[in-house]
Every structure is written in C-alpha cells, then in structure tokens.
Specification:
This protein is of the alpha/beta class. The chain has eleven helices and 16 strands. It has a five-stranded mixed β-sheet, with helices on both faces. A five-stranded mixed β-sheet has the order 14-13-12-15-16, sandwiched between helices. Helix 4 packs parallel to helix 5 and helix 9 runs parallel beside helix 10. The longest helix is centred in the C-terminal third of the chain and has 23 residues.
Length: 368
C-alpha cells in the first residue's frame, strides 16, 4: 500500500507567504505603519520590520511620510506600495479580429497599449502574431518586468497549455512555455474568462464569491469561490458556451444543437439583431433568458449572489441583463436566498488585459 507523502512547510515557504501577506496589506492600504501591519497580520513587529526591509530593498515598498497621530511619542513612518517599480506585460487573445497587449503598472494602470490585427489568422499564423505581440510589449517596457500574463480563449490547463481553442485552431499548444522561452520572463497563461473574473475582484472591488460571464466570439464564465479560481477536474470549469439549453435550437459548430453559444455569443446575437432590428430588445431578452437557464443551476448549487456580465455594450445591455436576472431569480427563489445581483461589468474592453495583469500579481507577488 502506498501512503500519501506528508509535505512539511519549509522556512522559505513560510517566509514567502509572510512577504505576500505584508505586501498585500500595503498594496491595499498605503497609510499603514509597521506597527499597523503587525496588528493586521498577526506577525510580530520584528518580523514585519524584517520583511518590510526586504520589500524596500526590492523596490516594491517605500516610506511615504509620517502619521499625523497626535499621541505622545515619535510619529509612525507610513509605508506605500511602489506601483512603478515593475512593469507587467498583458495580452488579450479573446477578440475575433485582433490581439491586444499592454504594458501596465503594478496598479493596473496602462502605460502602453498595442493592437495587432489578425486578418483571419488561425493556427501557426495566429501563434506567430501572439509571439510577435509579446516581443513588442517586452521592447516597450521601461522598468524591470515582473512577468507576462495572457488571457486566451479555450480550455487551458494549469501548466498554461491551451488544450483546445477551436476558434484559433489551437490544440495542445504549450503557449506558456513557448512565450517563456521567447522572453526569458515569468509567463502565466489562463482562460480569458478566468482572468476577467480576477480583474473584477482585484480592480473593480468584486466579492470573493463571484461569477463573471464573458460574451465574445463564444460564451465563457470565470468562477471565484472563496476568492479562488475554480478550474475543474479537466481545466474546463466555466465552459458554458456548449451547454445545451434548447434541443430544438440552432446547430452549433461543436456538433450539438441549441448550445448557449448559438443564442448569446456576440456573432450569433449581432446577426439576429441585424436581421430584425425592430425587435432588438426582444431578441436581447430572449438571449438573456437562455443565459439565465444555464446559470440558474450554478447559482442554486453554490449559493451565489453576485454575477457580472462582460461584453460589448450593444449585447450586454439592459434587456439581456434584466431577463437573465429574472430567470435565475425565478428558478432559484427561496426564503433564505438573498436578492441576486446581476450587473454589466464596469471594466469595459480592458477586462482581460487587467485580469492578465492580476494573474501576474497573484502568481509572482502573492497579491490577490
């Protein structure tokens, strides 16, 4: 019989965790002293002082003045996060007609933004475009680079391999390894809907339990439970676009009939509206109802209260949102369940870029 290996926490692991804990506190509030951080984290003052010294030596933290506390004694020295100490490179590969990239500060502020038209490129040609974009961003950085984050459509495993991205004709593509070899930088590749939900949490003040639906060339969802991404056993959690919600509906490119994507993807819904512009609101409401049918079991099973919908403004519009909210509320109604909050994303077209930056922050600095 084999017994599981007992893994012990090494001193360097504990130190790395404590560094992340202290940096997170300063990132979230740049009005803290060393004593404040010790109280907030439960670490000793000596430990905090040692960790702050290490973060200052790395250029990530700097002293920013003294507190105005009127208490007797020496004023406390306040600490601030140094947002320009590093650059983050971010790429959004989710759009139908272009790849987008950006160089951002550690606060997610864009410094340089680059767009590269695809002109219908798929397969090796699309890969070449992604690699060229990454190299261009690397050249555009003006500070040491913390890493590159990439949000891509398709199913992506924990090693950053794109298992399947049908719209790009990518299968078992080791994108993370390829870009790491190209740039000699830390690279993290994740599904576009997953990074977008990280952006909602980090940059839009979203809660720890959250679903973010991304309406684009397909339909995907990112799910946070307890602040952690849910990947699923096969790295395909959130791939709701090919869930059948109407067996009499349109044929889908995946071979099934009536998939959610045939009702609510941007190309499908845009085509319906263009064919019948006088009934735009009704068509949006119908799509919203179908989205609600797909999400209601998830909301009911996990007890979720917050859903964010991202996509072009003409699609993620009031009729669609209202219909989705009404459908989910009707199907999950309970005397114990709080009112469902379902809103359009406030991050606009930059959600995947910001989420890719959040992915790097989390992976390299532990700031989540």
């Amino acid at each position: 019989m084999q017994y599981p290996i007992r893994r012990t926490l090494r001193p360097e692991d504990a130190r790395r965790s404590n560094l992340a804990l202290v940096l997170q506190a300063i990132y979230d509030d740049s009005r803290l002293s060393r004593a404040d951080i010790a109280r907030a984290t439960g670490l000793t003052k000596v430990t905090v002082s040692d960790l702050v010294a290490e973060l200052m030596a790395a250029g990530l933290v700097q002293e920013s003045g003294t507190s105005g506390n009127p208490r007797p004694g020496k004023p406390s020295t306040l600490l601030a996060f140094h947002a320009s100490a590093r650059d983050i490179l971010a790429m959004d590969l989710s759009a139908r007609d272009q790849f987008r990239g950006a160089v951002l500060s550690l606060r997610g502020e864009p410094i340089v933004t680059v767009e590269r038209p695809l002109d219908g490129a798929v397969g090796d040609d699309a890969l070449a475009a992604a690699r060229e974009l990454a190299a261009e961003l690397r050249r555009a950085a003006t500070h040491p680079v913390l890493g590159l984050g990439v949000g891509t459509p398709g199913t992506v495993n924990t090693s950053g391999t794109v298992l399947a991205a049908p719209n790009l004709h990518w299968h078992n593509l080791a994108l993370q390894d390829l870009l790491h070899d190209d740039l000699d930088l830390p690279v993290r590749v994740e599904n576009d809907a997953n990074v977008a939900v990280l952006a909602e949490r980090r940059f839009a003040g979203g809660p720890d339990d959250l679903v973010r639906v991304q309406l684009s060339r397909g339909v995907g969802a990112g799910l946070l439970v307890g602040g952690r991404l849910v990947h699923g056993a096969a790295s395909d959690a959130g791939e709701i676009g090919h869930v059948v919600i109407d067996e009499t509906g349109p044929a889908c490119s995946c071979g099934k009939t009536g998939c959610l994507e045939t009702w609510t993807s941007v190309p499908a819904l845009t085509a319906r509206i263009q064919a019948d512009p006088d009934h735009r609101d009704e068509l949006l409401a119908e799509a919203g109802h179908r989205l609600g049918l797909a999400l209601a079991p998830v909301v009911g099973m996990l007890g979720l209260q917050h859903i964010v919908v991202g996509g072009p403004a003409h699609v993620a519009a009031t009729p669609l949102l209202d219909a989705a909210r009404d459908c989910i509320a009707e199907r999950t109604r309970s005397e114990f369940r709080p009112e469902l909050e379902l809103v359009a994303s406030s991050l606009g077209a930059n959600a995947v870029l910001l989420g890719s930056a959040a992915l790097v922050l989390l992976g390299e600095l532990g700031v989540g």
